[in-house]
Amino acid sequence: MAIFDIKKILGGGMKKRPEKKLTPSPKEEKKDTSIFGGKKAIPMREAAWKIRKDPHPYIPGAGGAILSEKERTDIAKRLSKYGSYLEKGAEHSRIFKELYKEKAKAPTRAGKLKIDREIRYLKEKLGE
Fold it and tell me: Does residue 109 sit within a domain?
């Protein structure tokens, strides 16, 4: 028997695979967990209030440590010197640049640690 005859007996030989139709997977929208809440800019007073009254004041990377309300109030006061509105992404580099300078000038290790925790907290809240 020839190969052609065997293919006929077995069902016509090799069949083509059905083509897969590619459907785009549904993209999950990332929820904005920053203090902006989806807005491009918020008044500084609102930003300070949200930082001061934050229900989850955990410091990222600090093993569950939290900032006290007094420390959050100090952060809010520090932000108020950057104008009347806080824009998403615009002033962040300036804020963090000044905080890093202050961290470098801190005389003690405890002072540097305190400022570092403030930086990490602000990065999370400002959406960096």
Answer: yes
